[in-house]
Design brief:
heterodimer; A: mainly alpha; two-stranded antiparallel sheet; B: 319 residues; alpha/beta; Rossmann fold; Alpha-Beta Plaits; four-stranded antiparallel beta sheet
Chain lengths: 257, 319
């Protein structure tokens, strides 16, 4: 396969992924938007007005970046896991496996599809959040950079989950028992500075804290953690997960007998 | 570049041991010449689908080599895969996509641009009678249509080697015949075809060469003509005008009474059927029609598989 053919193969996978989540938009795009609007109404306006300020910001303004990032993470994750596992379940992953498309193109195609959905939903939620809260972007490069990196990181992570998954239970275990608790305890709704010192230390072991705090730094200029450390850590995870995903695809784990 | 002398497919000492230690292939060798229409037959679990899976990179081999038009499937996988199209046994497309989208996407995976892919998709969907259903959800197609969709998909990158794993399973006789004609036509145009099937009549009428695989080993690999020559006896069903109460006896011709008006007779190739008829006539038994009990290839196939089973058991006992 020459470079042009590889580009065609990548473009085909990406278009197919985008077509998939656009075709079933009532399942993929609408629910996260409704959920986030409810968060804004309940935590931002109804309860938030009684909370006052957090890290020196009105509560609704404080939670907005976390809610946007939460939608980016969950949608990047959901897209790749449902699409890749769905392909395994229906066995149409074999269409790709019998083709000369290299594994790294397959990886890029699925990950780019996940990023498109994550960023698409993130953009809709960002526009909606402007209705509920006033804010201007503190640092555009940090904001855009962290969103792209986070979306990439979770799309890669979930591909590994989907590769190993043997049934539908396996693809819901990680989001339900690992991802959701880490997001909720990762500083979306509160600053870790309000926690006792011990729990602040424990919280710093949660990778979600770095993602959410860095995004909040990009948008609002406030953060609970060091930005350079966060970016370095996410970059490290991206390299690690890319290597692991590619290794598993090359090995054929879960997809070739 | 491929030379005409190179086999379309060459398999050397291929083995496959699955994770549960099951030995699906025990070192098979197989060559399929360019332009051939080749049958790979065997009972369920013999190793046919494993072999096809390895050729198409869906199954990882344990050892051995597989080359397609001289290109090793491991070392030169990109070129090797360009030469192969596969029609698997099970439906393996996204049932929520349209046939036209499935075909164009498959072409894309082979690096074919959308405009070329659309032209080819139209060509093959029309040839296979699916053009009118191109925009329906694939799940709404009938079983026969789904099989034809998989053939169109396998041809979209115009492979030189087409591998079909039981392509007519569950397809009605009329449609099966039209699929045979289609396959014969693309074979005439130069595409090498490897076919596995449980319909031995299908293999006999389509294929020029044949390999029989059983328990992970090739038990026969020859031309269809040579194989059929090996058949030294045939079983005929004779319909009798009179009602028979007892089974007639004719020396050297084993006869079984099936029903009152029907008998089965085993006839060796060296024996004359005239003598059988004459002898029945002497007993006032009049034959009104006659047919082969089974397809000729079927008789041979059962013989070989049975022989292999006995030898296999013998080996097991020796151990």
């Amino acid at each position: 396969m020459n470079s042009h053919q590889k580009w065609v193969a990548f473009d085909t996978i990406l278009r197919r992924e985008i077509r998939r989540f656009m075709r079933i938009w009532p399942q993929t795009l609408l629910p996260p938007v409704i959920t986030i609007v409810l968060y804004f109404v309940i935590f931002g306006q109804l309860i938030g007005s009684r909370i006052g300020t957090m890290s020196g910001l009105p509560y609704i303004q404080f939670v907005a970046p976390g809610l946007i990032m939460m939608s980016v993470i969950t949608n990047s994750y959901s897209n790749v896991v449902s699409s890749f596992f769905g392909s395994k379940f229906q066995r149409n992953i074999e269409e790709l496996l019998v083709s000369p498309t290299p594994n790294w193109i397959i990886l890029l195609g699925y990950v780019a599809g996940g990023m498109c959905r994550g960023l698409g939903v993130g953009s809709i939620v960002t526009l909606l959040s402007l209705y509920f809260a006033d804010f201007s972007i503190h640092s555009l490069p940090v904001t855009i950079g962290i969103v792209l990196m986070t979306s990439l990181m979770f799309s890669l992570a979930v591909l590994i989950n989907a590769i190993f998954a043997a049934n539908f239970d396996d693809i819901s275990i990680i989001p339900t028992f690992i991802l959701t608790p880490l997001i909720y305890l990762g500083g979306v709704f509160y600053s870790i500075k309000i926690l006792p010192e011990f729990w602040q230390i424990v919280s710093k072991a949660n990778p979600m804290l770095y993602v959410v705090s860095t995004f909040r730094e990009g948008m609002l200029g406030v953060s609970d953690v060091s930005i350079s450390f966060s970016l370095g850590m996410i970059l490290g995870f991206i390299f690690l997960l890319s290597g692991a995903s590619l290794y598993l695809l090359e090995k054929g784990s879960g997809i070739r007998q | 570049m491929t030379s005409n002398k190179q086999p379309a497919l060459s398999i050397k000492n291929l083995t496959k041991v699955y994770d549960d230690s099951f030995k699906a292939l025990k070192g098979i060798d197989l060559d399929v010449a360019q332009g051939d229409f080749f049958a790979l037959l065997g009972p369920n679990g013999a190793g046919k689908s494993t072999t096809i899976g390895i050729i198409c990179s869906l199954v990882r081999k344990t050892s051995g080599t597989v080359t397609i038009f001289g290109h090793d499937v491991d070392e030169d996988f990109s070129t090797a895969k360009q030469f192969v199209g596969v029609v698997p046994q099970e439906f393996n497309f996204n049932q929520f996509e349209k046939p036209i989208d499935i075909l164009v996407a498959q072409a894309g995976y082979f690096g074919i641009k959308a405009d070329v892919a659309l032209q080819r998709a139209e060509k093959y969907l029309k040839q296979l009678g699916l053009w009118d259903r191109r925009s329906d959800l694939s799940r709404n197609l009938s079983g026969g249509m789904k099989r034809r969709l998989m053939i169109a998909r396998a041809l979209i990158h115009e492979p030189k080697l087409l591998v079909l794993d039981e392509p007519t399973a569950g397809v009605d006789i009329e449609l099966r015949r039209s699929m045979w004609e289609f396959l014969q036509e693309i074979n005439k145009q130069g595409t090498t075809i490897i076919l596995t099937t449980h319909y031995l009549e299908e293999a006999e009428s389509l294929c020029r060469n044949i390999a029989i695989i059983d328990h992970g080993t090739i038990v026969q690999n020859t031309s269809m003509k040579a194989l059929l020559k090996e058949l030294n006896r045939e079983t005929f069903v004779l319909d009798i005008r009179e009602e028979l109460q007892v089974c007639p006896v004719v020396a050297d011709y084993p006869i079984t009474l099936v029903e009152n008006h029907s008998i089965e007779v085993e006839v060796l190739k060296s024996q004359s059927i005239n003598r059988l008829f004459a002898s029945l006539s002497e007993q006032d038994i009049h034959v009104i029609s006659m047919r082969n009990k089974t397809n000729r290839l079927e008789e041979l196939f059962f013989d070989m598989v049975e022989k292999n089973l006995i030898e296999g058991d013998g080996e097991k006992n020796d151990e």
